[in-house]
Amino acid sequence: MARTAAMPRRQARSNRDRMLITPEGVALPLTVASRGARAGALLLDFVFLGTVFVVVTIALISLAGGVAQLIGRFGSGGEAPAALQFLIVVWMIATFLLRYAWFLVFELGPRGATPGKRLSGIRIAARDGGRLTAEMVIARNLLRDIELFLPVAFIASAGVESPPAWLAATAWFAMFLLFPCFNRDRLRAGDVIAGTWVVEAPRRKLEAAMSVPAVPSAASSAYLFTEAELAVYGEYELQTLERILREDRDAAIESVQATIAAKIGRDPWVPDSRAFLEAYYAQLRARLEAGMRMGRRKADKHAGDAS
Amino acid sequence: MPAGSDPLTPDPLVSALLRSDRFRVEREADWRRLDAIVTAMEKGRLRRVPDADLIALPQLYRTVASSLSIARAISLDAATLGYLEALVQRAWFVVYGPRSSLGDWLRGFLGGGWSRSVRGLGLDLAIAFAVMCAGVLVGWLLVAHDPDWYQALVPGQFADTRVPGASREALRATLFGNSQQDGMGAFAAYLFSNNAGVSILAFALGFAFGVPTLLLLVQNTAILGAMLWLYHGAGLTLDFAAWISVHGTTELFAILLSGGAGLHIGRAMAFPGERSVLAAASEAGRRAAQVMAGVVIMLVVAAILEGFARQLVDNTPGRLAIGGFMLALWCAYFFAFAPGRSPGHAGSRR
């Protein structure tokens, strides 16, 4: 029944909004993460990665220094290369893991986001609404290699001395960097391969108190509106009114109250603007919701009353 | 049907409310419980979530999802709708998130998932194999035609004493007698990260419709062909084959798999069939990613073999035995080991 009338938009929808159908058949609104948020997340991750890398390297070097000192003091020759070699192996493995496992491990966690993504308020999800699997996360992160690490290393090694190689590497880098700009869902190459996308993590805001108090205050029940007075507005105005009541700014409340009173032909001067609006909100909502149950919806004030 | 539509509710306070608010009051406890569970799981405090809550989670998720559907039909309270949408979305992320722990995933992966994906590559493996053989042949022919090609094909690290015109003894010395060499561990780690880089590159380049993957395969196997020619000229063909087979059967197999994985993606994107390009790419990508996870494991094995076993086993028959055994092992694992799908495995079911 709700499908017949368009859902009133509760907020201005951007072109990043998508509807995702869960396996249960519930339509969920999702917002595709903006490119800025993703670039920020990537930069943050690189800062973290770089920090961890430097810390590990310094720790291993100082450990190596300590080992060398110990060996120098006790003078046993045989163990020195073995111990130092072990540290080199540890460093190589740590470098490999930082390059490939950092993104993997974090995105496989319950948050589906690296620390950088989490700070930017975004996460990854399966594009088809199904389960996000380990294979998807692996695929999207292995492709990061040709999108990012390889061309950057190439640009750095080619240098300015060999313009053709440098140009080719830069073009390659630019192609993958700009990839998200040329498709609707801002997919990067890894997302295409993996069947994932990056979306805004749902806001965690807890429910505010209901605008309709559990016990209607005496003041607001003093206002009773007639059917004709309520028929002026539709769902869009109702939800605008709800927002204004929640924001609770005196100036806005007074001006909206005056506007509504003028529109329905009442005296704009009332002792308690907020009580007036609360009463109008509750009664308008009751009326519109009753209409909804009958399959009649009124999207906004311009829509004709279907009754 | 929307509860709260009957006037049986005894509480006069509740019955004074709008129907949609009554609906909300009656269900709010469930919503808040789900909210608490999801919040705890998002914060990574899975252990502190009671078992009862974990068991209730899927049911609660469905309850709240249906609350959302009903609320959309009967309520105009934007705050409630917004909250429910966000809550269902968060719960959806948790319920349909990466479910298996790393251990579970590894078990399913080793116990059939990996070999199944490898077999799924099928034709791509055959193409990659043919291309690699062709690469060896091209390397051999180029160098046989004009030895100057050797310098162009073989990177400096292999071209120390191993250059055209080197004596048989010098070449032989590179194959045998290195068992006292130091630094094997570091060497193995270096080999591993280097080879893993090449393999991941071969896979990732499949994105460009597989063409660069083929080029990379040819380039890498041409080195092998050139060196084979060099040792053949010195009459050391079998010794060289044994020397390379210790780790080579594993490593070349891994490179074959990553090349096949790259081709698989490239082919799926170039010829998606009746699916959309995106759907074809993501299906191929997931299968190829599973193969690639295994390639990394194979390369660890190859690096250990190359760094240690090859130096410690200093004779041709022993090396051939190790190489042959590894080859048989991988072939048996990939093509003969086909357990039935375990019913509960998360990775294979979608």
List strands and helices in order, with pairings:
The complex is a heterodimer of chains A (about 300) and B (about 350).
Chain A: E1 17-21, E2 27-31, H1 35-74, H2 79-108, H3 115-120, E3 122-126, H4 134-142, H5 144-158, H6 163-178, H7 189-194, E4 196-200, H8 218-221, H9 227-230, H10 235-247, H11 250-264, H12 273-293
Antiparallel strand pairs in A: 1-2, 3-4
Helix pairs in contact in A: 1-2, 2-4, 5-6, 10-12, 11-12
Chain B: H1 12-15, H2 19-42, H3 51-74, H4 78-95, H5 102-121, H6 123-145, H7 148-153, H8 168-175, H9 184-204, H10 211-233, H11 237-270, H12 277-312, H13 316-336
Pfam families (chain B): SpoIIM (PF01944)
Protein name (chain B): Putative membrane protein SpoIIM required for sporulation
Keywords (chain B): Membrane, Transmembrane, Transmembrane helix
Task: Explain what this protein looks like in three dimensions.
Chain A has 307 residues and is mostly helical. Among the domains of chain A are: 35-146 and 183-200, no CATH class; 218-293, no CATH class. Chain A has 12 helices and 4 strands. Chain A has helices spanning 35-74, 79-108, 115-120, 134-142, 144-158, 163-178, 189-194, 218-221, 227-230, 235-247, 250-264, 273-293, and strands spanning 17-21, 27-31, 122-126, 196-200. In chain A, strand 1 (17-21) and strand 2 (27-31) form a beta hairpin. In chain A, helix 10 (235-247) packs antiparallel against helix 12 and helix 11 packs across helix 12. Chain A is elongated. Helix content of chain B is 75%, strand content 0%. Chain B has helices at residues 12-15, 19-42, 51-74, 78-95, 102-121, 123-145, 148-153, 168-175, 184-204, 211-233, 237-270, 277-312, 316-336. The longest helix of chain B is centred in the last third of the chain and has 36 residues, at 277-312. The chains are: A mainly alpha (307), B mainly alpha (350).
